Amino acid sequence: MTDSGSTASPQPTASARGTAATRQSPEQQSSAMQTSSPQAPPPAPTPRQMWRDAYGRAAIRALQTLILVAVIGLGVWLAVTLKIVVLPLLLALIIASAMNPIMRFLRQRAGFTRVWSAITGLVAILVGLAAVLFGIALTVRAEWSALAGKAQEGVNKLMEILTGWGIPLDDTHLSEYLSQVTEFLKNSGAESSALSGVSVATEIITGALLMIVMLFFFLLDGDRISDFLVGFLPERLQERANEAGRASVNVLGKYIRGTVVIAAFAAVCDLIAMLVMGVPLAFPLAALIFLGAFIPIVGALVTGMAAALVALVAAGPLASVVLVVVVILVNQIEHHILQPKVMGTALSLHGLVIIAALAIGAHQGGVAGALLAVPLTAVLWASFKTFRDMRATAPRPLPTEDDDEALAAQA
Predict the structure, then answer these.
(1) Nearest Cα to 321, choosing from 303, 309, 336, 339?
(2) Of 230, 253, 227, nearest to 241 (Cα)?
(3) Is 314 in contact with 285 (CB distance < 8 Å)?
(4) pTM
(5) C-alpha distances in angstroms, 305 versus 301, 336, 400?
(6) Average pLDDT per 10 consecutive residues for the chain, totaling 411 residues
């Protein structure tokens, strides 16, 4: 029984509960659902999203750098291993680039055919190189022993002067270092045995013949060879590759022609100074300065200092100091006046980059590596700038219908 006096609280019916639920706002319903059901975990990032953050981009750049360094190292190793082919190829390419204006003149102005212009250019190059090298070799060879003796006397006299000025020089250690250098040259030189001498002579003759053959084909079909190599690239890169090739030929040609002019200027100026001061062996010393000038920055300076050592013995300290001043002055004129005028932008490299390239080239390829390191570095830099500039100025393709549909789907 129930108490008649007590009143039971009315329970809402199903329709009333539905009406009350409909009276709640959507925000209240959403908050009620979130409090009643547990929050779902966020979706795991995809592999592509993981590589898009800062660490992923840095890892991609590091991997690309390692791959690039590995490819460059492999190329350097192959070049050093196959130097009997690579060295003649590079020399032929550099000489052909220097002869490019003359070849254009023979074909366009003089009316020579392709074959006759190549033959004429090759004969002119061989005669010119033979005359220069034979003259230098004859001049230096005739007085080489006297030149080496004078240089050694100059070193000894310089040591005596520095010791007299109070600069401590230990004769024992210096003699030990000189003996080690002499022993190294005897053991590693071509004269260490008859077999090594024959091997070096065979390599030189083989390399010279390869260079002559390659030079002829570069003079004859240089443009066709370039088109053949560029044809392996994708079509979107062929125009930039052609421009980079033309820039490389221009840089190589200006570099070689400018280096010859600068080397001749340094040799003539130093020769005049030595003749005025009465330094013996002036002509072989000038020939060495001319050859040394083909190594930028340090070549003419080092050979000029060797000439100053000879002047120290033959004409006294005053003549040596005057010659040192002349060598330094000529070196500064070359770098600040002649090089910008003659080479233009062919050697637009910082001095630190040139020194680093010389060190790497000399370490990997000896004298030949030191001679070729700077022009090759200039070519690589010119090609990189060409690709970069053409990529920045290349027109972007117009959007297609597929692109519009993809953008609409993303929106």
Answers:
(1) 309
(2) 230
(3) no
(4) 0.65
(5) 6, 20, 68
(6) 46 48 51 52 65 78 90 83 86 88 87 89 89 77 64 67 62 57 48 51 82 91 87 84 86 86 89 85 84 83 83 78 89 82 70 82 78 85 81 53 49 48
